[in-house]
Amino acid sequence: MGSMEVTSSQNDTANIIGFFRDRGFDEKSINQMIKKCKRLQAAKTETASQNWDYLITIGIQQRKLPSVVFKCPRILTLPLNDKLVPMVQCLTTLANKPTEVPLVITKFPHLLSHSVEEKLCPLLAFFETLGVPQTQLGKLLFLNPRLISYSIESKLTQIVDFLASLGLTKQGMIGKVLLKNPFIMGYSVDKRLRPTSEFLKSIGLTELDLQRVAMNFPEIMCRDVDKILRPNFAFLKTCGFGDSQIAALVTGYPPILIKSIRNSLEPRIKFLVEVMGRQINEVVDYPDFFRHGLKKRLELRQKHLKQNNIECSLSQMLEGNQKKFSDKFSLNNKLT
């Protein structure tokens, strides 16, 4: 009896290898998938074939399907009607457009290996309690499908408690943070989020400032202090800004701490001082200076002001669209 089971298992493995070969997988990829997913050794080619065909019918491009299966070979072993179909149906109800479902599965096929009842429904209910509107639940999941693989108790609740500790306690606040940057839920509180918040406090941000950063630019909370935030802070110091001025810059325009020094900060400061002939302390009063495009806005508007011998503050120069800028300085007939 035992030898018959071994023979049957060997036949299943041989059959599944043949199944993959027929669909263009090379030997290296097949071995990697079997090593990654032990279930494949006993997988039935009939189930694998049914699931493969089903994934095509829901809109996954045939040329991308091998990549999808390679990422998560387990989806070929799951019961079609009990596992894959219910998850796809549930995802479809969350989608704004039908194309979103095959796209999110292509990006993160592990979605299909989770249970609707045990994983997806509790996850959606958890986000609703945080103030994420029902209509936005799909957006959250489709932006970061890995959310389904995180434990609510040991992972997500920790992040929520941390955000609440910053003072984001009013109804819906944390939900808004998640919608702005659902990837924040993937970071470690102790290794990333708390060190970042402590660094921001150390450079002079108040509790209220920190709340504004988390609400409006949550991606900053996710950046590495030593690799990104501290070097940007050090660069601003070398430019001549004092500690209180840097705190004002970060409060006024938090992305200044994560912008590329070489491609963003340095060229703008150089333009401000060398071309515009202004003092660096002017950007402390108008930190949004770093938000504007160098070519499309700064250089163009500086050129027009210089041609017409107009002097004004940075905010007067840069606020508003091109029409407002022209009207403000009566340049309608002079712009070329």
From TrEMBL:
Keywords: Transcription, Transcription regulation, Transcription termination, Transit peptide. GO terms for biological process: DNA-templated transcription termination. GO terms for molecular function: nucleic acid binding. Gene3D superfamilies: Transcription termination factor 3, mitochondrial. Belongs to the mTERF family. PANTHER family: CGI-12 PROTEIN-RELATED, EMB|CAB62602.1. This is Uncharacterized protein. It comes from Aquilegia coerulea.
